[in-house]
Amino acid sequence: MDQGSPKGIKFSSGEEIPVELHKVRIVQKLHLKPIDDRLNAIKKGGFNTFLLNTADIFLDMLTDSGTNAMSDNQLASMHQADDAYAGSQSFYRMEAAIQEVFGKELVLPVHQGRAAENVISKTFIKAGDVIPMNYHFTTTKAHMEINGGEIAEIFTDEALKIKSHHPFKGNIDIQKLKDLIAKYGRQNVPFIRMEASTNLIGGQPFSIENMREVRKVADEHGIMMVLDASLIGENAWFIKQREAEFATSSIKEILRTMCGICEIVYFSSRKVSSTRGGGICTNDHDLYMKMRDLVPLYEGFLTYGGMSVREIEAMAVGLIETTDETVISQSPGFIDYTVKELDKLGIPVITPAGALGAHVDAMQFLPHVPQKEYPAGALAAALFIVSGCRGMERGTVSSVRLENGEDLLADMELLRLAFPRRVFTLSQTKFLIDRLHWLYKNRELVGGLKFVDEPKVLRFFMGRLDAVSDWPEKLVAKFKADFGDSL
Ligand code: F0G
């Protein structure tokens, strides 16, 4: 594998394979249904993979959110949960884990990542503010805008390149940051947000060097930094692989360094600790007090924040496990394997491989589908039809409609194929690669989509679409001609 890639185990053939460093002891039966059933299912789901029933899905690669496999120790910890409305021991164990792993003393529990975004946005954003960031996440943008703010993405020129060797495509462009503060004025910039393993641009990390440069600019203007740590484990892993200063550091040291640079750290536990839930932490008492009262109002009392105490126990263990390299490198290892195989087959995919999932470029995959017919959505639907694998559209369907009635076309049209930690095997991964390869060879059969029911906010979740022609039927006919009865 390339320098900077997660290390596989070397086989005698010379190949490096991401051998699983865990054993599977609890399993869940999967269903690989016939292609006609899959076609019916996607039609019933309005060509939106969010609206599928998992009974119809073979490999669920929609997200890693709340779907990472938990460890034996996490499951065991759930049995010692302390049910108490206030003062639960489970909370104090979770608080101690956050203090140890992130180095932040003051902890606010929330029911998931977007709830942290609600609390932070309500507390710190006023109408007319602008929030600089490496890139937005859908829920982040929605919460900031609802509170009157505007996001400003100040990524580097490398960030949106599909094919790249840049190790840190999640970096902030320092000059753009300086220009932005000069333009809007310090009083309109409540904080700078950095998102670890930047989700919507392909799970791409930033470097600590970049964080330190951002910190310098922030200090010059007295602006605070907020870290979205939902995918911090993987970002730390990439820093260890790709940033020379940290090559011999432990993951714990890297996590502490990253969190130490920012005043506020928040996270979705659905990702970082392989559980459900979320949290906000800081060492600044004033900031803590400003946010604190919103937690009982929106989430629940300060010692559960809307979470089940069982999840809180599993979070405590999961956070400590985030410092274990075999845990945080498993998903990047499989993603790296998949990206390299797809790349070899000529399938357009974001490089270098990042965190969370493999990201296929639908614009190059389906150059004949105009962006206003949602190529990434069409590709997600087509892949489901031919494989039962569910990915997620991350393109214009996930964007918004402007007041003039036109879509705000997304910067990228991506099909995201998530690899939740320790969930899939290598043969399942090979099946995915094979079906995607077949689809690529038959890509001219895939057509576009149109909205038939479009919600005003976060339309990608519940929106319903339809095919612009009978392309799904034609795709099914070709599949049957090539595979016969095989699934
Ligand atoms: N921040 C980032 C970087 C995320 O990836 C997510 C969720 C959130 C915040 C919101 O957290 O879902 O717990 O409320 N990402 C999921 C995904 C939904 O599929 O990528 P949440």
TrEMBL record:
One of its GO terms (molecular function) is carbon-carbon lyase activity. GO terms for biological process: aromatic amino acid metabolic process. Residues 60-427 form the Aromatic amino acid beta-eliminating lyase/threonine aldolase domain. Gene3D superfamilies: Aspartate Aminotransferase, domain 1, Type I PLP-dependent aspartate aminotransferase-like (Major domain). Keywords: Lyase, Pyridoxal phosphate. Signal peptide: none annotated. Pfam families: Beta_elim_lyase (PF01212). Its cofactor is pyridoxal 5'-phosphate. Belongs to the beta-eliminating lyase family. This is Tryptophanase. It comes from Geofilum rubicundum JCM 15548.
